[in-house]
Amino acid sequence: MFILYSLIGFFGVPYYITAILPSTLFENTGVFFKTDHTTFNPYTFSFRSENISLQLTKNNNRQLLFIKTLSGKLSPFHLLRNDIVCNDLTIIEPSANLIRNKDKSYNFSPLFQSDRQKSYSEMMNFSDLPFYFSLNNIRVKDGSVTFIDQPAEKSHSIKDIQLALPSFSNLAFQADNYIRPHFSATVNGSPVELSGEAGIGDSGSARTSTDLVCNLKAIDLPLYLSYLPFTLPFSITEGKADGKIGLKFDPKGEKGQKLAVRFTLNISKANFLAHNSTFDLAIPRAQLEGTVNPVSQNIHLNTVKLTKPVISSFGRSFVKNISSLLSTYSDKKQSVPGEKSEYTTVIDSLTLKDGTLKQFTPEKDKIISEWTMLQLEAHHFSTRKKNEKNAGKEKAGTFTLTGSRKKSSTSFAWKGKISQPTYFLGTLTANHLDLNGLARFLDLSPLHSMAGTASLKGELSLDLAESEKSLKNAVFYHLDDATVTIRNFRLSPSNKNKKKNRSTELLADKLILAGFSRNKKNINFGKVRFEKGTLTFRKGQPRLFFPFLLQENTRSEVSSSKAKVFLSQTSLLKFFFRTSP
């Protein structure tokens, strides 16, 4: 028995690895595996393999992975339970050649394919493996990685990789000693170093965790942003980032939360361009702090601060441009290999300070309107819908948006709640509005000249998803229970050839619309009250009020300072003419 055990250990195990394992691996993955020499000691359970290579085709000179030496020591008791536990593992001079193909798949994809095909972007969940493993005290020496990105026509190199990882596992195991985590390498010619701690716990504790922290300095954002594991609705054309990125691995964390990437970034001189070219965003300074869980596909942003951003919107309206962008982003399906997954995003605090919004014509040659001093505070925003799991545990989202129009006293404030990822409801207050600008916002197109300064207060609700579906409608919101006050109101024919003393016009110190409402189907003027109004009518002049007041789906109630009368649309016109001087 002793001799048989020794023969199996010293000769049988190496034979299996060098002669049988390659064919088994090829049948399951189509990958060629080869090792020149392997030794195994059945009494110490230590092993060593040399010149290990993985290739996608047998005659391909470009190896997917090559390891000069792999050595370690296994735990025999765990092998009896079909668990793989390694007390220490040393990898010397590994080199990997990774390729991102034109279809956005990767050359290592066959390693992770199975009978039930997964998308190329889906990350492996180690807790779902049919066996348990615990790799401890992992050392990588003098490693290198070459990455060729065919779609982006770029190549990247990582050289001089030195890695020390205390633990990587999906089962509870406590080693006697752990090394200090460390990572250093030269990435595209720039040295990068990470250091951290291993939170192992007391002897016998089931919890083991690893923390690595990397300091970033003047990182070129356009070079790396396209490699994020999720799709962004915009591209970045320039920008630098300083800060820290931390990697935390806790094998006993909640499902989907074992691996977390934490970051604190200070971004400068960044410029973002929407994929549909409807707007671009220039940000002189920004701060981001949060966590990405790549397995559960969650992004948690604790803090987002944007300072003096400039938003340039082209054609249509800014709100509809944003709606179109978000709709395209959220409705995207993974039907093509290599398609990136949609992540759930949670933002605890979003602050925009001293922003500017410029609305351009579709030709991008003229500014239609410009809003300055934009201030935004948003809290507890989430792209997870309420009917999804755990959504009820999240706090209700809130927002406050204020701003003013350039070179005028026009200002607004909108404050309310976010009940769904794209649904905003709150009280809108606007002051010193140009009457014609207000008419455009309300989708009123009077055939006559109007003048006056308006203020508005009401409940405004906006569904970005619904507004994208209603792109043909000018009204993409609901305004309810509003009070509109117009000072120095004047309504007169637009014919400039009319002499002033022969014109038909309505003048009022104040025009008040109480209970005004507007949506994409109806408009209700509510109760209309004139203060110190004068109506001048000349026989033969155009019917001034007919086109304006008798629009489809319009209701009104009118009163004057002398008498209060409630009239239908038809009698409203007669009321004006009957009481004219």
TrEMBL record:
Pfam families registered for this protein in UniProt: DUF748
Classification via InterPro entries: AsmA-related, DUF748
GO biological process, one term: regulation of protein targeting to membrane
Gene Ontology cellular component list: plasma membrane
Protein name (record): DUF748 domain-containing protein
Organism: Desulfomarina profundi
Lineage: Bacteria, Pseudomonadati, Thermodesulfobacteriota, Desulfobulbia, Desulfobulbales
